[in-house]
Write a structure and sequence with these properties.
The strands form two sheets. The chain has a three-stranded mixed sheet. A two-stranded antiparallel ribbon has the order 3-4. The protein is built from ten helices and five strands. It is globular. It is mainly alpha-helical and 287 residues long. A hairpin with a 2-residue loop joins strand 3 and strand 4. 67% of the residues lie in helices and 4% in strands. The longest helix is centred in the middle third of the chain and has 36 residues.
Length: 287
């Protein structure tokens, strides 16, 4: 009976956390068209989305879930160089694989559009999703589930949920597309979760998530015909001269292709290795 109650509570927490995420996303969505200046129209809604999500997550966690800011992972602990290295190397190695290992030749598709692509990629795709998704999935959901259902469940269940949430980005899919998405989405979610667990903070995962989105799906570089479930509209396009969904990622894009999955797994192995001088994350308060 206690287990059933814990499961029901966690389902409610998931619903509440998703509501927090949607509220933040909606604030960015409604503000963007209201600001005439192109740069401010990207920067201000991004900042508001992050602020709204942070405030709502803090309020819900503090008042309802009884998780304080430190246990939620909001406290910025000592930032290891290894977190920065893995955050940069993961997307750069994937870009290098598709640029130099496969025969496709990269080309500039938007002459004169670099600054716009950089601003859009960072403030519309990279930073807001990187911070808010980590706060909701590796902050609220993971932290509550860890203290109520245990660490293993808290790593696995939100990872699968994180993957399934991204199904909405797909225009069409078959069984192969769905399998690749669940495998890749769960793999990268486990990576971000372990970064949060090892560091005691959501911020290393937020950095990795932000840089991945910025470099891989942020319209600066675009690999293949499909990027994050949409037609490739990037500044630099890197064609994938293969029909294999294992390399193209099918109707979602190379984020779920096997080279990316291999990158997620290698990064996860690195994160799990012992690092000299690493701070121990704080214990979570009892429920």
């Amino acid at each position: 009976m206690d287990l059933v109650k814990d499961i029901l509570r966690n389902m409610a927490v998931i619903a509440l956390s998703v509501a927090v995420f949607l509220a933040g996303s909606f604030s960015q969505y409604i503000l963007s068209p209201l600001i005439a200046d192109k740069t401010l129209g990207l920067v201000v809604p991004c900042a508001i989305r992050i602020l709204v999500t942070l405030l709502l997550a803090w309020a819900v966690s503090e008042k309802i879930l009884k998780i304080d800011a430190e246990s939620l992972g909001l406290k910025l602990r000592k930032f290891e160089f290894s977190w920065i290295a893995v955050s940069l190397l993961l997307p750069l190695l994937v870009l290098a694989f598709y640029t130099f290992v496969l025969p496709g030749k990269a080309f500039v598709a938007k002459e004169g559009g670099l600054s716009g692509s950089l601003l859009y990629g960072f403030f519309c795709v990279g930073l807001p999703a990187g911070v808010t998704e980590e706060l909701v999935f590796r902050g609220m959901i993971f932290r509550y589930m860890k203290k109520s259902l245990g660490e293993k469940t808290a790593v696995i269940v939100p990872a699968i949920l994180f993957a399934c949430v991204h199904i909405m980005n797909m225009q069409a899919f078959d069984l192969t597309d769905l399998t690749l998405l669940v495998l890749a989405g769960s793999s990268v979610a486990v990576l971000f979760t372990l970064m949060a667990l090892k560091s005691g903070s959501i911020w290393p995962g937020a950095l990795a998530h932000t840089l991945w989105n910025f470099l891989i799906i942020g319209k600066v570089f675009g690999i293949g015909d499909v990027v994050n479930g949409s037609a490739n509209d990037s500044y630099i396009i890197i064609p994938v001269e293969s029909a294999s969904k294992l390399l193209t990622g099918g109707n979602f894009g190379v984020e779920v292709a096997l080279p990316s999955v291999a990158g997620y797994i290698l990064a996860t192995v690195f994160v799990c290795l012992p690092h000299k001088g690493r701070d121990q994350p704080p214990d979570f308060p009892p429920p």
